[in-house]
Every structure is written in C-alpha cells, then in structure tokens.
Design a protein that fits this description.
The structure holds 2 protein chains of 2 kinds. Chain A is of the alpha/beta class. Chain A is built from 32 helices and 11 strands. Helices cover 53% and strands 8% of the residues of chain A. Chain B is built from 13 helices and 3 strands; from the N terminus they run H-H-H-H-H-H-E-H-H-H-H-E-H-H-E-H.
C-alpha cells in the first residue's frame, strides 16, 4: 500500500458522499416532478400519511407530502412562488386568501371535524366529568401556551366563550389550574401520563398520535353547544381540503380531495380521532362548516384610539391604545399603538413617558422569530394601510426619530415611579385568553408606567373581581395599593396591602405588601373629600352581574365613582338575577352620581329605581334619598315605565349605557362619546342595517357638538346622512349640519 | 517501528468505521443540519415531534454508545465514528490545506483552540436556558417521509425561523473551513468534541507519550489531523500518531497496564476491545 492510497480513497469518498447527497436530492426532485404535491397542517400528518399511502395504492401514483404549520404553507401557496396541487388544513382564513388570489380550483371541501375534548388519565383521579370541572379547584390542567393555535389559543378561546355564556369564572380558574407542559402541542398529554396533571383540553386527534395511542387515557366529549359557543377559534375544528390551480395535476388533486370526504375513507379518519363529515356524529357540528376571516379586534381598537385622539379625548385614547397591546394583542398593531402613545405623551408635555414608549417600540419590535399575526394570510380582507409587510419598520423608524428629538432625560426611573411594581413587564402571549386576569394586570401596570395610576387602578381591580379567582389577583391587589400610594392616598394603600396580606398569605405579593407597609409607615395621606356612603356589599362571584356589582363597589371604594356608575349601569342592563340586584344597582348608581356632584342624574336613577322595581326593598331607600336631595335637583328626562330589557351583545350594552349618560346630560370625561364610538366599532355585521348604528353615530355627533368639537360633529352627521339616508336620523343629522353651517349671531355681528 | 503500510492500514480501518457510521446516521445528519426544528440540532431528538427523523429512535442508542466509548477510550468517537469528522477529514485530505505551515499559525492555533469552550457554553445556554430544552418540542416543524424531500427543506427555510439560516451558515462555514484547514470545525468550534475531550482525562484507555524514547522531532503534533499532542483534550485518538511515530514514543495505556502498540494499532484496538468487554 502506498501513502497515496488513503488520499485516493478519500477522494473517492468525497465523490461518493457528494454524489449520494446530490442524487438523493435530484431523486427527490424527479419524484416531486411526477408526484402529486400535497401540503397539510402539521396536525393532519398522521391521518394524511395513512391516506396518502392508500391513495397512492388506489391511483397508482406518487404523492409528495409535506406537513408544516398551515399558515406558513398557505402564505407560500398564496403569495409565494411554490404551490402544491392540493392543500389540507383547518378552516382558517387562509382559504379566503387563496380564493381571493384565484388559486383555488373550486370550493374547499370539508371532510372532518376534529373536536376539542377533555382528556383525562384512564383512572381519572380528579373525577373530572366534563368541561365544567376543568376550573374546579385542585384539578391540575395541562397546557401548552407556546404551541400552535389548536393546542394553545383555541382551548383558551373556548374557555373564554364558556366563561361568558355558561360557567362564569371558568376561564381564570383554568388559567389558575394550568400546568405548563412543553412548547410543542405534542407534549400536551405527557403530564397526564406522568401523573403531573389531571386533565387537558385537546383536539381529539392528538390522542391517536403514536405517542399516546394505546396509552391509559380517556376522552370526555365536550357538548356541541359548548363548542359552538366559541365564535373565534372554532375554525380550527373543521378540516378542509382543496385542489389548487397548480397546472397539470389538478384533476388528480381533485380526486385526492374528494377521497378525503368519501365515506369509504371514513374508517381512516375515525382511526385518527376525527369525526368524518359523512358520519351522524358530525351532524351537530354542521354550524361550524364555514370559512370566515376573524374580526381584527386590535385594528378596531387602534382606530378607535386614534379617533379619540383626533377628537382630543386624550385620556380615553391612551387607554384604548394600551388596550390594543394588552387586550387585543399581541398583534402587528402593537408597534403603532405604542408609538402613538409616545406621541400623545409628548403632546401633553411628558417627554419621559414618550421616551418610555418609544424605547419599548425600538426594543420590542420587530418580534423575534416568526409570529402568527405577521402572516399576510391572516390579514386577508384587512390590508395594513399602505404597509404590505412587517409594518413595525415604519413605527420603529418614527420612534427612533422621536427619541432623537427628545430633550435629555431629566427624571430617573425612581422619580417617575416612586412606588415600584414589577421591574420587568409580564409578556402577554397570543394564547392568553382574551380579557383574562393576566391581561388586565399587565394593562394596569403599563398604565402606571405611563403615568396614569387612576386607569391603572381601574384595570387592576378587575383582576380580583371580574376575573376571580385569577392567579394574578394577589399581584393586582398589591398593585392597587401601589397606585393609591402614588396618588397620595396612603390610608387606602395601607388598607389594600393589608388586604393582600390577609387574602393571599404566603404569596410573593403579600411579602411585597409587607415591605411596602414598612416603607410608608411614617408617610401622611393626602386629604381627599369623602364620598357619600354606599350600602354595604358582600363580595360575590357566582354570576357575571354579581361580579360586576362587586367590581363597581370596589371602584367606588377606591375613589372612582364615575367608573362605579358605569358598572352599575352594566348590572342594570345585563341579565341580572332577579330585580333586587338591578334595583340595588340603580340605587348605587344614584349614590355614585351624588359623589360626582350630579344631583339631577342621581335623582333620575332613584326615580327609575322607584318606577321599575316597585316590589324591591331598595325603593324605600331611593325614596329616602330623593327626599334628601335639594329642591332644585330633578331628573331631566321622563323615565320609561318598564325596566330595561337585558342588552343582547356588546353593541347594545354600550348603546344602553350611552343612552343613560345622555339622558342625564352627562358629557364629562368623554364617557358618553366613548360609549357611542364603541357601539360603532363593536357592532356585529347583523347590526349594520339596524337603527342602532345611525342612532349611535348621530348621538356621537351630538356629544362632539356639546363638547365644543363642531368640526368632528359635522363629520359624524355627514356620515349618517350619507350612509343611512332613509332613516329618521339622517333628517336630524341634516338639520344639525344646517345649524352648524348657519353663521352664529356673534359671528354675523362681528362681520357686519 | 511501524512502516507507512501499517499507518495506512489503521487509517483504512478508521475510514471503514467512519463510513459505516455515516451510512447509519446520514439521514439524521441531513435532517439535523437542514431542517431540525430545534435551534441546536441532535440534542432534543427524543422529544422531537418530527417522527420521520431517525434521530428520534437512534439517539438513545448512539448516546449510550458514545457514553460507554468515552469512558473507555475518551474522544475516540470523533476520530472513528463522527460523520462530520469524516466529511471534514476527507475534504482536508483532498484539498491538502497548507494553512498550518503559515508563519504564526502555531500561535493563532493555540488561541483558537479555546474557542470551542465558549461554543460549548453557548450551546448549553441555548439548549437549557433560551432555546428549546430537552423534553420540550418546537412548534415550527416540517414533516415529510424523506430527509431529502426538497419541498420540506425549502418550506423549512422559508418559514422565517432564524435557526435554519444560522445552522446552514454554520454548516457551510464548517465545510469551507475543512477545505482550508484540516478538521477546522473539530479543532476550534465543535461543542460536542469539547465535551468529549474532557473524557480523555478520565477514560480507561488513554494515549500517552513516553518521554524516554521521544526524540522531540516535532512530527506530532505537526502531522496530526487535530494538530495536537497525544492525550490532550483535543486528541481524537485516531491512532495515526501511534503508527506514525518513528521512535514508538506514543502508546495506548490503560489504567493498570500499558498497551504495547506494536506490532500494529489495529491489533491493539482488538486487545482493548476484548479486555474491556466491548469488543
């Protein structure tokens, strides 16, 4: 053997490895050219792998099958240069994007339902009987909040819908009971097998994966009415397939798609935990078989915030923009909202706050790694005004420019926030349930960082009341004390911190409260006028009206009577359990009005209490209170003789609240304007032809006019006249436009 | 003293072993570098949802094998089995890199060898603290029946996960590095190699240089593929130095008795195998 032998051998090896690698890819490419290209959602991988083999045998063809997160596949198929012959996935908005781009060959075919189920260990140690037990204290629930939508966000949305419609408090109880499993949805059921969790909410197909098949797990179905309660997120259950106009294999692709819905292949779908569309079991879920683009809540909130800012209602605008981030987010709107918050702060002479917001824009955007909300597929029908992709870039550059133009920092962080809260903000995840305790907690903290302890308190108080028993209650209660202290109300702060210690002993918040109490031991409270006394209230959380009443009472206790008044109105216009609660709310609303020094409005509330709830014990209190009023106080509007019907949907509720404000001629704090604008932005498509929209728009105009913003009022009236010309409101709007156009006597005098 | 034929024989046996491992792990290697859903590949395979990747079933066996072999004979896995090592070595052999002969290289080499420790620290940090710890999955998974599915690779790369690009750049860097410097990746960057190198200090069998017969000719480390001294943490126990040392100063030595490397390293390996029961 010579020394060059190894070198020759190595050359051969290099050649062999290179040739093998290249030919493997070339072979793959050749196969791909002749094969039917099928892409699917990762969750369909198991069933599709089996179906692909069956299809290949039956049609003597090859299928090149790839599974991945479907929104990326849809994005590539819709806007990229690669397109499969068929695509399979959940019924999300991507299908609309494909259709809009003319890439679908026919309509998508629904072939199965993959319903959410409750999964428990076979011996069911926690005795879970149904979805309602998921929130029971002591039940440990496995969750994968970082996973893709069907195993993270969708269970959260289900909990939110159940909380709203069936089981008050279940959403935050589920959060409290949650045990974080891995980042991947595949790990969702592992804690059930290891004894670390008692239940999980998962797509039924997950239980049939090789990791879990034949494992001691039991499925508890969730009733169709509970699943159908979910409006947003339910699209992940119906499974769709469609052939694409990819070229020469469209006919074969159609056969592939039709085969999925063929009863002959139902056995395969059932084996993998799906309900085939042809089976009787899928019948109750038929209402789900539709493809919709979800409402862009964050976009609506941003527009509302910007509109309020234009109207000069800066306080409410700031709150809306923070809600975009904490309640509607995370979304691509966050960067814009944060930038606008900085701009508003600068305009109101708070460069330090502007700096805080703009620095966060530069630090937090663009988000690291791929995020679902960046997908153009999800933007279908809601284009991002002039900014095709990565809309953050625009706001980041504006924030940078803003930062460069700011004067040097003067106040330190300690000066800005004399009473500290959490130093690092909690991260709001896409999978956090909408309007959960965590989201309100982070919103409250952000209000405080932005220099607004009043709003901070308002939102933080929601955590322990509307979201009882949220795991974030202790933190929120501690924070309320901080906000009170920041407003100089040391007595209330001490009371709040003592409450934190007694209600959440042993928690980190209780320890911080103990330290805070030591810190303010020698501080004096700012003297504030005392409010009229409210009747005592035992905190209760069984129903939403009871929670709202508890929240309203706490708002009042913490010196926020305006917001307490609004909550009382919500109780009155909700489905209150029995009239006694509504009567109490009317009475309390009157007390709140007195605290706001609105005796006329208080008189109205008490008169309504007398008229609507004649049998209630609160009538005598209302009568007594009316007797104590000064003679000049009188309700401005004749009250209706019957108690109001419960509001159906958020638009009606906001309208009812706005009407209450308007009836009492209360325009302060832009609350009435805000409520009418909320009607406009939250109205369901079904409301577009109902009189509620022109009415609300017209009255928003009246509010603007009343608060000396005639130019904006004109815009509202013009919109009513143009959009709803045949309604009575159009006539009223035209009359107001004429009045606004007419020269005022002072102006005519001056000109003459 | 062994002649060049014996040395060639050892290298040929080593190549055969490396090729066998390449055939065994080639698909895993491809998926790991091109579309592993984890930032750091080849680590979290047992919890990976990508069930079509052989790593999900192969990893436990290979880890056990590496563990045992490391305890017995230190970093020999790098020299005898690692497929990346094979690719680097054959690329180096045919391109005949001469960077080592540049003036000042030895000094730079000494410093650059420290790079693999920060690399190891970075990987440990990424795996356990930042990225995706073992036992957890990753949502951005592309599945396909074959590792060489072009669609799967392109989809993985266009999903926008930075890890795919960073990893591809690292792979490209390693291959280019191998063309200009023998086993550059193994010498300076490989975090796994750095970890295994620690076993060279505690393993049952070690490479050892006998000071007495050594004439300090400087052939090793000069001609070593790792450019290192036998027995250090950089040594991959490839055996080239045992057979190539003109004064037979380099030997295998176990705890308790010295391995007589003559008449050939291959025979020595056989004896060690039978002695430790892994043979």
């Amino acid at each position: 053997m010579s020394k060059t032998l190894v070198r020759r051998l190595d050359a051969v090896l290099v050649l062999a490895i290179g040739v093998a690698a290249v030919s493997a890819f070339v072979w793959g490419a050749v196969q791909r050219r002749d094969a039917l290209a099928v892409w699917s959602c990762g969750g369909n991988y198991q069933v599709l792998s089996d179906y692909v083999r069956r299809f290949e045998r039956g049609h003597s063809c090859a299928v090149n099958y790839v599974a991945a997160p479907v929104q990326y596949l849809l994005e590539m198929a819709t806007y990229g240069d690669r397109m499969p012959d068929a695509i399979v996935g959940r019924a999300g908005p991507g299908w609309l994007a494909l259709k809009k781009e003319g890439k679908l060959s026919g309509e998508p075919t629904f072939f199965a339902i993959d319903p959410l189920v409750v999964v428990v260990p076979a011996d069911n140690p926690a005795g879970v009987r149904g979805i309602e037990d998921i929130g029971r204290e002591g039940v440990r629930v496995s969750a994968t909040p970082d996973a893709m939508r069907p195993k993270s966000k969708v269970p959260a949305l289900l909990m939110s819908a159940l909380d709203e419609q069936f089981f008050p408090g279940i959403m935050d109880s589920w959060v409290r009971n949650s045990i974080r499993s891995g980042k991947c949805g595949m790990t969702l059921l592992e804690p059930l097998l290891s004894g670390k969790a008692d239940a999980a909410v998962a797509p039924s197909s997950l239980v049939t994966y090789p990791e879990y098949r034949d494992k001691p797990l039991k499925l508890i179905p969730i009733q169709p009415k509970h699943l159908l309660a979910m409006k947003k997120g339910r699209a992940s259950m119906p499974q769709c397939a469609a052939a694409l106009n990819s070229g020469h294999k469209t006919a074969l692709a159609r056969q592939f798609v039709e085969g999925l819905a063929d009863p002959a292949n139902a056995d395969l779908l059932e084996q993998h935990g799906y309900l085939p569309i042809s089976s009787a079991k899928a019948e109750p879920f038929k209402a789900m078989l539709e493809i919709n683009a979800p409402k862009d809540l964050a976009g609506l909130l941003t527009r509302l915030g910007l509109l309020l800012a234009r109207f000069g209602a800066d306080d409410e605008a700031r709150r809306r923009l923070l809600i975009v981030i904490h309640i509607g987010g995370p979304s691509h709107w966050d960067a814009r909202a944060r930038y606008e918050l900085g701009r508003l702060a600068l305009e109101s002479g708070k460069p330090d706050i502007a700096r805080h917001h703009w620095e966060r824009v530069c630090r937090e955007f663009p988000p690291e790694g791929p995020v679902e909300y960046d997908s153009r597929v999800l933007q279908v029908g809601k284009p991002i005004e002039g900014l095709e992709r990565k809309p953050y870039e625009h706001w980041i550059s504006l924030a940078r420019e803003g930062l460069a133009s700011l004067p040097p920092e003067r106040r330190t962080r300690a000066e800005l926030l004399p009473f500290p809260i959490r130093s690092e903000p909690l991260t709001v995840l896409e999978s956090d349930p909408p309007k959960s305790g965590k989201r309100w907690l982070t919103l409250g903290e952000d209000h405080y960082r932005a220099g607004d302890p009043r709003y901070a308190m308002r939102d933080s108080l929601k955590v322990g009341t509307l979201h009882h028993p949220s795991p974030y209650s202790a933190d929120a209660e501690y924070n309320v004390g901080v906000f009170q202290a920041a407003m100089g109300r040391i007595d209330l702060a001490k009371e709040q911190w003592n409450r934190t210690i007694s209600e959440y002993p042993g928690s980190a918040a209780a320890r911080r409260a103990g330290r805070a109490l030591q810190g303010v031991r020698d501080m004096c409270t700012r003297v504030v006028p005392s409010l009229p006394e409210m009747p005592s209230w035992q905190e209760r959380f069984d129903t939403h009206p009871l929670r709202t009443m508890t929240y309203g009472m706490r708002l009042y206790h913490h010196g926020l009577p305006l917001y307490a008044f609004k909550e009382m109105l919500k109780v009155i216009h909700s489905e209150a359990e029995g009239t006694d609660l509504a009567a109490r709310a009317r009475y309390c609303a009157g007390v709140a009005c007195m605290a706001l020094e609105w005796p006329d409005a208080a008189a109205r509330q008490w008169v309504l209490c007398q008229r609507h709830y004649r049998e209630s014990s609160w009538v005598s209190k209302a009568t007594e209170a009316l007797g104590d009023l000064p003679p000049s106080a009188a309700p401005r509007e004749i009250a209706p003789s019957r108690a109001p019907e419960p509001a159906k949907g958020p638009a009606q509720l906001h309208f009812a609240i706005a009407e209450e404000f308007l009836a009492a001629a209360l325009f302060d704090d832009d609350e009435v304007l805000l409520e009418y604008l909320k009607v406009i932005t939250t109205a369901a498509p079904a409301d577009s032809e109902s009189p509620i929209l022109p009415n609300a728009t017209y009255k928003a105009g009246l509010c603007l006019e009343e608060t000396a913003r005639p130019a904006f009022a004109r815009g509202m009236y013009e919109r009513v006249a143009a959009r709803w010309p045949d309604t009575p409101f159009a006539g009223k709007a035209r009359a107001r436009l004429a009045a606004l156009s007419a020269p005022s006597p002072e102006a005519s005098g001056a000109s003459s | 003293m062994m002649g060049p034929d014996a040395m060639e024989r050892i290298t040929l046996i080593r190549r055969a072993s490396q090729v066998a491992f390449l055939l065994l792990t080639g698909e895993w290697l491809t998926i790991g570098w091109l579309r592993c859903p984890y930032g750091v590949p080849f680590v979290s395979c047992m919890s990976c949802p990508l069930r079509s990747c052989p790593g999900t079933w192969l990893q436990p066996y290979l880890l056990a094998l590496i563990g045992v072999s490391s305890l017995v004979i230190g970093r020999a896995f790098c020299g005898w089995a690692c497929p990346m090592g094979l690719i680097e070595e054959v690329l180096g052999r045919i391109s005949r890199p001469r960077l080592e002969r540049l003036k000042g290289f030895a000094r730079a080499d000494r410093w650059m060898k420290w790079l693999k420790w920060p690399a190891l620290a970075a990987v440990v940090y990424l795996v356990f603290a930042v990225n995706y710890p073992p036992g957890r999955g990753h949502p951005y998974v592309v599945r396909a029946a074959s590792a060489f599915n072009l669609d799967a690779v392109t989809i993985a790369w266009t999903m926008g996960v930075r890890a795919y690009w960073v990893r591809a750049a690292v792979l490209a860097g390693a291959l280019v590095g191998a063309l200009v410097l023998m086993r550059a990746w193994c010498r300076y960057c490989c975090p796994f190699g750095a970890l295994l190198g620690l076993f060279n200090k505690i393993s049952f069998i070690k490479l050892w240089r006998d000071e007495a017969p050594c004439e300090n000719c400087g052939k090793y480390p000069r001609e070593c593929v790792q450019h290192t001294v036998p027995g250090t943490t950089d040594c991959i126990i490839c055996g080239d130095c045992i057979s190539g040392c003109s004064c037979s100063a380099i030997r295998l030595r176990s705890r308790g008795f010295e391995m007589n490397a003559q008449p050939g390293f291959a025979e020595g390996v056989e004896r060690v195998g039978s002695a430790s029961g892994t043979g």
